[in-house]
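Obj.: predict assembly geometry.
Materials: sequence records (below).
Method: joint structure prediction, all chains together.
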Amino acid sequence: MARFKKIIILMIFPDTMHAMMLESQKQPLVLKVVPVPKPASSQVLIKIIACGVCRTDLHIVDGELTQPKLPLIPGHEIVGTVVQTGEEVHRLKEGDLVGVPWLGYTCGSCKYCLRGKENLCENAGFTGYTIDGGYAEYTVAEEKYCFPLPAMYGNASGAPLLCAGLIGYRSYSMIDKNAVNIGIYGFGAAAHILIHVANYKHKKIFAFTRDHDLQAQQFALNLGAVWAGDSSKKAPQKLDAAIIFAPVGNLVPKALQNVDKGGTVVCGGIHMSDIPSFPYSILWEERSVRSVANLTRKDGEEFLNIAPVIPVETEIKTYSLHQASNALNDLRNGNVHGAAVLVMS
Ligand SMILES: [Zn+2]
Ligand SMILES: [Zn+2]
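Observations (raw structure tokens):
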């Protein structure tokens, strides 16, 4: 019997796994065979089902985010199954479906953590940036930062919820609750999820895409946007708020010009090109510009509670693990409508 058990365990935990590694920035990812990581006492080992490919991954690979661990396994939209738990893990058990987001660790004791702003933690660890992520067959993650997932999201279509969904939701939660007419600049992974939430709450979405990207504009209209057009165009009416997901700084004054008195422009990305100077008059009348950084576990819990009720659905383009660089290139070139996801074999 003891021997039988051991054989099962060996089958579940191979010694090695495939992973796509970033060895140095501005270089293509490399397929490697590496040891399967062992969970620390507070961690779980996860067999990865799928991992989303986020624009942030592109900023890391391209060197626009400058502090990655190297070599690095990117990826922070992980869906998988817990296959082993550390000794101090109590909430999760083997067989549980979980999602692993960008926020991988916080200290719990810095001034930001103590004020309930763990997204700004001074000692935070970020999945797929300062901690190895999900472009691999297995990963380890801190139990406290994993989200249990409903069965409907335990597959590739659930992966984009873990960042595009969460950051989109956090960005949305930064605008006035009474805002009805909302502009979204950049209709990619985050926007195509957020529009489900907005429709559910009877908001009107005005989708701004790269100029002449008729395919993206049609995609937004199909998902329920009341208007879709080029980012350089003026909105057909004043907007109550705008969210910018595209990493393009010159959209900030454009969005401000479209936003009504008292409205907020939220910048949802982690990186943006420089914002050009603009006249004070387009900010005056209590308009504001703000950014969103990372997420809190509370954001994740709120969003993952509401997502299956709405229900949020994603449109995905799937790739195998070794095609990760193709997925990144498609994202860079605007060839993904919805979200790109790596599916492990
Ligand atoms: Zn902290
Ligand atoms: Zn992301």
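Conclusions so far: The longest strand covers residues 43-53.
To do: check interface contacts against the pulldown list.
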